[in-house]
Design brief:
The protein has 593 residues and is of the alpha+beta class. The protein folds into 4 domains: 175 residues, no CATH class; 59 residues, no CATH class; 183 residues, Alpha-Beta Complex (Sulfite Oxidase, Chain A, domain 2), CATH 3.90.420.10; 108 residues, Immunoglobulin-like, CATH 2.60.40. Helix 1 runs antiparallel to helix 6 and helix 5 runs antiparallel to helix 6. The strands form 6 sheets. Strands 7-6-15-10-11 form a 5-stranded mixed beta sheet. It has 11 helices and 24 strands. This is Molybdopterin-dependent oxidoreductase.
């Protein structure tokens, strides 16, 4: 079947077809490249996969307003959304590269290589990577190599003319012929090339091998060679399906194998160890939970937050895997004596247990990024005392395994009243991986971003003047005590309530390190009414409150404000989260009828 049998209509149809196949080829090549790089990253310790590294760069580079928008919009799903975004972007680029590559393979390959430099740079600059730079580059290099080879292989197959016999006129005694109609329009202009040696991008044009068949009439068998520099309309109309399918199967197999390796070795070593840990007992008995700390109101935030419900806020796109085997915590800087502790060393020390409510600065008024847990660990002041803090130091710069830095006032850590803890357990179990396993800091009264370092590996006694912590370079204050706040849990905004019933208006209020003295509620801007408080456990935890309301028919606004134990009453002035925490009264609108 000669190329001339195809009219313009069919040619266009075939091109459209090929365009789609090209997109699929790009996607497949991208999948293989990503899978192999993910597999390598899973096999190498301390190496971040290119996908995550790019995501991490995106997190770090995201301007604050956009980050706040993301947290507002997606809440704790911001990580899956971001990773999903990176994957979708990569997939779209791969489809475009493949589709363009059908006609312009060199353009597609070039674009792919340029774009994959992003992965290289992200890998080199990744905060959470701890391996040597050379190792860190490996997955990104593999991504480039596998992607380029797979893309070329698939495009080559898509651009290879089908094994079609073309009748041609004899032109010499050897039976060599010149095709009457070159399927690609460039016959004769090219040097022959062996079908077994894949052409490269710089290879010459199409070649028509001629065989003399039995009946004496020479025929051209159009071989499936890569006419890589043939662009545009020079594309053969029918391509070699078998060759394409074979290439697709090979690339697909690489993708599946990469995915399998990643699944098998991508697991967390820490998770296995965590299951086998026996927690020590605190040195002194844990203060009993005061009776009456919990109110019996449906829908109110439980006094203690189960680990599975505890909010999570961090910059880690994948939970850092920090095995206790090999874990050391270093305490150094402006100290008389450096200390290095293993996990076992820590467990062997004096332990305290305390309930502390952790709060994130990223709470809008009425926000839900707060949780109350029982923390078990080593008093940080014990360690600082042992190390011997030198004069002039006013800060501790703590660093996590994923290289997040947090700056905390030394005073808060040394304060014997405050019980800042190097925690190893949360609510009676070893720290969950997402909450900082094996060791994290918990400091009453300070927002998490200036105190609650998860996966902590390094504590440096220093001066605020001498360093900048992660968030302090991103528009947040260097110091950030938790602001007094109250939240209405029930009724929910836009709820319908019944007139004639007594409706509990209830929630939690917090003012860690100061304690809550009173909570007041008002309806439609009327007089403030005293809510009933649950018993106070300690000044570092939140307090539940309830006020019974007899609503009139209609739509109402309920507002709440708390007064802390210093006598300070929450201001109604609304300020945003940045730079050091929102203020304002939480309110809900409900309809009674
Ligand atoms: N290593 C590390 N520790 C971190 C963070 C982080 O991004 N990385 N985020 C901090 C912030 S902003 C908060 S509010 C608390 C949240 O702790 P949680 O996730 O256990 O609730 O952890 C803090 N510790
Ligand atoms: Mo936070």
């Amino acid at each position: 079947m000669s190329d001339t049998s195809h009219g313009p209509e069919r040619r266009r149809g075939a091109s459209r077809h090929r365009w789609i196949l090209g997109g699929a080829a790009g996607l497949l090549a991208g999948a293989a490249a990503v899978a192999v790089s993910e597999a390598l990253a899973a096999l190498l310790t301390g190496v971040t996969s290119p996908l995550l590294a790019v995501g991490n760069r995106a997190v770090d580079a995201t301007p604050r307003p956009l980050k706040e928008f993301a947290i507002r919009t997606f809440g704790e799903n911001d990580k899956p959304v971001l990773i999903g975004g990176v994957i979708v972007t990569v997939a779209l680029l791969a489809v475009v590269a493949g589709a363009v590559g059908v006609r312009r393979p060199r353009v597609a390959l070039g674009a792919f290589l340029v774009l994959s430099v992003v992965a290289l740079v992200a890998a080199l600059t990744d905060r959470s990577a701890t391996a040597s730079p050379l190792l860190c580059l490996l997955p990104a290099l593999a991504l480039m190599a596998v992607g380029a080879v797979a893309l070329l292989l698939l495009l080559r197959a898509l651009r290879a003319p089908a094994r079609t016999a073309v009748t041609s006129r004899p032109s010499g005694p050897t039976g060599t012929a010149v095709a009457e109609h070159a399927p690609t329009g460039r016959a004769g202009s090219a040097a022959p090339s062996s079908p077994s040696a894949p052409d490269t991008v710089s290879s010459p044009g199409p070649v028509h091998q001629v065989e003399t068949v039995e009946d004496g009439k020479p025929r051209i068998l159009v071989r499936d060679l890569l006419p890589a520099h043939v662009e545009g309309d020079d594309l053969p109309t029918a391509f070699d399906r078998r060759k394409f399918l074979a290439a697709a199967a090979a690339v697909g197999a690489v993708a599946v194998a990469g995915g399998a390796v990643r699944q098998t070795f991508g697991g967390s070593a820490a998770a296995g160890e965590r299951a086998d840990i026996t927690l020590p007992k605190p040195g002194a008995p844990t203060p009993a939970l005061a009776s009456g700390t919990s109110l019996d109101v449906p829908g109110i935030t439980p006094y203690l937050t189960p680990n599975k419900d505890f909010y999570r806020v961090d910059t880690a796109l994948s939970v850092p895997d920090v095995p206790i085997d090999g874990y050391t915590l270093r305490i150094h800087g402006m100290v008389d004596k450096e200390i290095e502790l293993t996990y076992e060393d820590l467990l062997a020390r004096r332990m305290i247990e305390k309930r502390i409510t952790l709060t994130c600065v990223s709470n809008p008024v009425g926000g839900k990024y707060a949780g109350n847990a029982t923390w078990l660990g080593v008093p940080i002041r014990d360690l600082l005392e042992e190390a011997g803090v030198q004069d002039g130091a006013d800060a501790v710069k703590s660093t996590s395994a994923d290289n997040m830095t947090i700056g905390t006032p030394l005073g808060a850590l040394n304060d014997p009243e405050r019980d800042a803890i190097l925690a190893v357990a949360m609510n009676g179990e070893p720290l969950p991986l997402a909450h900082g396993f094996p060791v994290r800091m918990v400091v009453p009264g300070l927002y998490g971003y200036v105190s609650a370092t998860k996966w902590v590996v390094d504590i440096e006694v220093t001066r605020f003047a001498d360093f900048k912590a992660y968030w302090s370079t991103r528009g947040y204050s260097v110091k950030a005590p938790i602001k007094t706040a109250a939240r209405i849990d029930v009724p929910k905004s836009f709820a319908q309530v019944r007139t004639g019933d007594k409706v509990p208006v209830a929630g939690v209020a917090w003012s860690q390190d100061r304690g809550i003295r009173s909570v007041e509620v008002r309806v439609d801007g009327g007089a403030w009414e005293q809510a009933t408080l649950a018993d106070q456990d300690n000044i570092d935890t939140w307090r539940q409150w309830v006020w019974m309301w007899e609503p009139q028919a209609g739509t109402h606004q309920l507002e709440v404000r708390a007064t802390d134990d210093t006598g300070y009453t929450q201001t109604d002035k609304r300020v945003p989260i940045a730079p050091n925490g929102s203020t304002g009264w939480h309110s809900v609108n409900v309809t009674a009828g």
